[in-house]
């Protein structure tokens, strides 16, 4: 591909430094994705301009008008500090007639709302844990017809925010308390789901129309005590010491019969299509003892850091980090945004 001018949108304060030298692991973790993408695009020969934004759209508008980027690399996950506005930023890019990487606004909106996406999946008869929603301000009065144990999470958060051992509840009292926690402490509607005991898989999907999946990835806990629920709590996901202590890692799923792996891959492509995703995404799933597979959620624009699940599973599937970023750019340039069908006066 020719040398492209790439505007990289990141959150204010996360414009990465030129080099990682002299920074602690904690500091690097804050802008690792941004650093990996900017540095790699630069090494690939592209002209890269990282831009930090938070509360104001005008820097985006100015950068697009003044610098005429070929494409905007979308690493922004929030606006005004709110994750729900990520799709609005992509809508803004569309209104600016600016190609961008990753998912279109509709797919972002649908997949961001876990309850809404589960409704769509159930319509298409995709297995997803049975659930009930308790909007903010609505306490538990009548028990939903769901079977304990249940797990309580926010309908809109991601990255395991608010997910802890206390999220898994086994009686009415604990359920009511956790619903209140999610509503009041996370300020979100609470999603209550039947808890699926079993293995947890992540599947990377890439493409607009023609889709490809990466090897099935699995979250493994080798040294977690038996009385601790094997779920991706915030600690499991982000606390390196905790991961070391309990032998927590993610790796290619072992021992899956090829027919089952193929079925999971097809299932993930269906989910991707039904939720109108484009660019790239990661589907989270659980499989119970009986081998039944349930879709937990779809993540549009998943974490792209080098060495994280998405990039690592791509690499295991034979796609290097550079090739992955190049594919993502190409898909962004080729995506058929509505504005492309309208002649410019
Ligand atoms: N129905 C469920 N059964 C078992 N574990 C679940 C269920 N829902 C969520 N989890 C656990 O909680 C984690 C976070 O939930 P998820 O819906 O993927 O939210 P997030 O957007 O924070 O990743 C999952 O990775 C999984 O370990
Ligand atoms: Mg998840």
Q: Residue share in helices?
A: 25-40%
Q: Based on Cα principal axes, name the global outline.
A: globular
Return the domain count.
Answer: 3
Listing every helix as H and every strand as E from the N terminus to the C terminus, the arrangement reads EHHEHEHHHEEEHEEEEHHEHEEHH
In CATH terms, the superfamily of the largest domain is ATP-grasp fold, B domain
Mean pLDDT: 96
CATH architecture classification of the largest domain: 2-Layer Sandwich
Structure, explained:
The radius of gyration is 20 Å and the shape is globular. Strand 8 (199-207) and strand 9 (212-213) form a beta hairpin. It contains twelve helices and 13 strands. The longest helix has 17 residues, at 258-274. The strands form three sheets. Strands 8, 9, 10, 11, 12 and 13 form a six-stranded antiparallel β-sheet that branches. Strands 4-7-5-6 form a four-stranded antiparallel β-sheet, with helices on one face. A three-stranded parallel β-sheet has the order 2-1-3, sandwiched between helices. Helix 4 (86-95) packs antiparallel against helix 5. It is α+β, with helices and mostly antiparallel strands and 345 residues long. The chain has three domains: 5-101, Rossmann fold (3-Layer(aba) Sandwich); 129-194, 2-Layer Sandwich (Dna Ligase, domain 1); 198-333, D-amino Acid Aminotransferase, Chain A, domain 1 (2-Layer Sandwich). The mean pLDDT is 96.
Brief descriptors of the model:
alpha+beta, 6-stranded antiparallel β-sheet, binds adenosine-5'-diphosphate, Rossmann fold, binds magnesium ion, 4-stranded antiparallel β-sheet, 13 strands, Dna Ligase, domain 1, single chain
